[in-house]
Input
Amino acid sequence: MKHAIEELIPGYIRGLPAYVPGRPVEEVERELNVRAVKLASNENPMGPSPLAIEAAKRALSDANWYPDGGSKALREKLAARHGVKPEETFVALGSSEIIDLAARALLRPGLEGITSEKSYAPYSLAIRAAGAELVLAPMRGYTYDLTAIARRMTPRTRLVYLANPNNPTGTAFGHDELDQFLGEALPHILVVLDEAYLHYADRKDMPRAEELHRKHGNLLIVRTFSKVYGLAGLRIGYGIGAPEVLSVFRQLKTPFNTSVVAQVAAIAALDDTEHVRRSVETNRVERRRLIAGLERIGLQAVPSETNFVFVEMGPEAPRVCEELLRRGVIVRPLGWMGLPGAARISVGRPEENDRFLAAMGEIWPAHAAKRELAER
Ligand SMILES: *Cc1c(COP(=O)(O)O)cnc(C)c1O
Output
């Protein structure tokens, strides 16, 4: 008997929505014939560390050799930096790979994975792609509600994804709240704590994740080189967790998951504390300016612990994003994430943020009147 190929693919995979990335600058420039700025994917607008660029260039001449599939040099550096053993670290093809491996290692049909609504779409996708049931907990306002997540744990739950600070809402929870949650989480549940934006957080009581890792064996910390380190295009990230979990990841991953170029660039980026400091400081100043600029035209952004701002615009949001795009300003409409009235704007360089604010100044007043009508 002959089957259409789609029929051979499990229904839970066929039904998956694709991740919608930010539009590339070149594509928008060609299509709309404008000079574009991209404030859509939370990259570091200052560029990579110059030390990382140098290291990557030098490594290119060794590109005929396979990389160290175990990323030993980078893992030793990470272990020293975080006060853990090398076997408690795992280097991955971006944090995306760890999010994926966690679901593949722990979930299957009949089991459950939990995350929050209004959070990072790859968590939901990973849970569903493993055939498990996706359980979404509500938020408290725009912030993860760990109590609501704890209440949804069952004997079938194996995995919880937490983004802290969260993408796309930009909020964070604190150390004590997470400590208590981990104390309540059943020992058969792996808690994945994704700290992609940690460097940008101003909150004083952010979780001391390494300390919680020592205290609770079921915590997996995920970090990336894609944000403050400015290496999103090289695809590299890492995890810190129990060796028993990470050794399963080593069995599952492709043999050479990260390139030699990415590995040496990551090592150099870790040493460039000045680049990190400058990136965080610039972001802090520019983030404040973006939020104030939005406020001046009557839009209230959610207070942000990240390198982006989240703002509710009401039903006009998709049209506002479209008009920004026509003016060459790429932001992220969030309708595909179930937030049709919201947009996320990455903090760019000063002149890029100026372009966004100038364009919003032209676009928003006409829509503001319509929103008021809709809210009556
Ligand atoms: C950007 C981002 C990452 C980074 O993903 P990579 O695969 O490391 O580029 C991870 N988690 C969240 C929540 C993010 O927003």
The pocket of pyridoxal-5'-phosphate is lined by residues 42, 94-96, 120, 163, 167, 194, 196, 224, 226-227, 232, 237 (CB under 6 Å).
